[in-house]
Amino acid sequence: MTQGEFFTEFSRMTSMLNAFAYNLTKNSEDAKDLYQETAFRAMTNRDKFRPGTNLKAWLFTIMKNIFINNYRKKVKANTIMDNTDNLYYINSGAETVENDADSNILIKELTGMIEVLDDSTRIPFLMHYQGFKYQEIADHLSLPLGTVKSRIFFARKDLKSQISRQYGKLREA
């Protein structure tokens, strides 16, 4: 297979390779990196491809192996190796204590703000917060779906207004 034929066949498989990369990584940026690394390795090792065999399978195998190797590197990077005599580094972190006072106060304040809401908006909002889907809330409260969505929207808007009054102007995200 000539270099031109190889490049032509490779470019025909670009969309499949990108889709496979995204399927492996579940992240578009990581998928782009994986595709780029696969393309680089395929081009540099083009001479190792045997004509008459399945190019698609060869490329997918390269991509899968790169993904597995990168995954193993990430797992090893999160492993702490302590070679000190008494395992000083591993044991030194055991004495830290977290202070949740700030977050507990904020949760209490937020809960108070939610309690101030009118029942017509508070109940659908809390149900949505607890994980109920819009349709489940509508069925449970015997309301139209649009009404439920509106009430949750207005609850969020009221909470944002209360937070803004208490803590000042919020940055728009």
Automatic annotation (TrEMBL):
Domain of life: Bacteria
Gene3D superfamilies in the record: 1.10.1740.10, Winged helix-like DNA-binding domain superfamily/Winged helix DNA-binding domain
Stored InterPro entries: RNA_pol_sigma-70-like, RNA_pol_sigma-70_dom, RNA_pol_sigma70_r2, RNA_pol_sigma70_r4_t2, RNA_pol_sigma_r2, RNA_pol_sigma_r3/r4-like, WH-like_DNA-bd_sf
GO molecular-function term, one example from the UniProt record: DNA binding
BP GO annotations: DNA-templated transcription initiation
Residues annotated as domain RNA polymerase sigma factor 70 region 4 type: 109-159
Keyword terms: Sigma factor, Transcription, Transcription regulation
Residue span, RNA polymerase sigma-70 region domain: 15-74
Family from the record: Belongs to the sigma-70 factor family. ECF subfamily.
Name of the protein in question: RNA polymerase sigma factor
Lineage: Bacteria, Pseudomonadati, Bacteroidota, Saprospiria, Saprospirales
